[in-house]
């Protein structure tokens, strides 16, 4: 809004400066330069049409670009401005469409590579989780085995101690019985 107001105020100075305007535009991964004009209103109007066409898709962009390129130019510094023939404009648009298609294919290939990379990363993560789970399971099994072995050693020691105590008790009972028998004979 402020650009048109400023240009209207400075119209005389701008025409003395011999300014020309051109739209440098990117659509579907392709850079486009429109023919130049001395009318800023025309440049803004062309820009607006190109933006609208870009939002509508490649076919709308083709039609708008063909219209812009083949339109006669009256607001130029040169006495005779170069105008595009229908064939030249269609040839340029053909290049535009080919570049759009190439860019689309490149983006699709890049997207496929990204998806494949992401899938490989997910597989690696899943494999790492499985490896870690296996390691943890093996570690737990080794720990369980060690605990079992320790328990068996403790049980074995307790059994030997009990057996030895029983032997001592049996031998002390035999000695006590022998002593009682000896005492009974002595009487």
Total count of helical runs of at least 4 residues: 5
Helix content: over 70%
Structural class: mainly alpha
User: From the alpha-carbon coordinates, what is the Rg to the nearest angstrom?
Assistant: 48 Å
Distance between the termini: 138 Å
Task: Please describe what this structure looks like.
It contains five helices and two strands; from the N terminus they run H-H-E-E-H-H-H. The radius of gyration is 48 Å and the shape is rod-shaped. A two-stranded antiparallel ribbon has the order 1-2. The chain has helices spanning 2-9, 11-17, 40-56, 58-70, 86-186; strands at residues 24-27, 30-33. It has a domain at 2-84. The mean pLDDT is 85. It is mostly helical. Helix 3 (40-56) runs antiparallel to helix 4 and helix 4 runs antiparallel to helix 5 (86-186).
Write the layout of secondary structure elements.
Elements: H1 2-9, H2 11-17, E1 24-27, E2 30-33, H3 40-56, H4 58-70, H5 86-186
Antiparallel strand pairs: 1-2
Keywords: Coiled coil
Region (Disordered): 166-187
Coiled coil: 100-146
Which terms would index this structure?
mainly alpha, 5 helices, two-stranded antiparallel sheet, rod-shaped, 187 residues
Tell me briefly what this model is.
This protein has helices spanning 2-9, 11-17, 40-56, 58-70, 86-186; strands at residues 24-27, 30-33. It is mainly alpha-helical and 187 residues long.
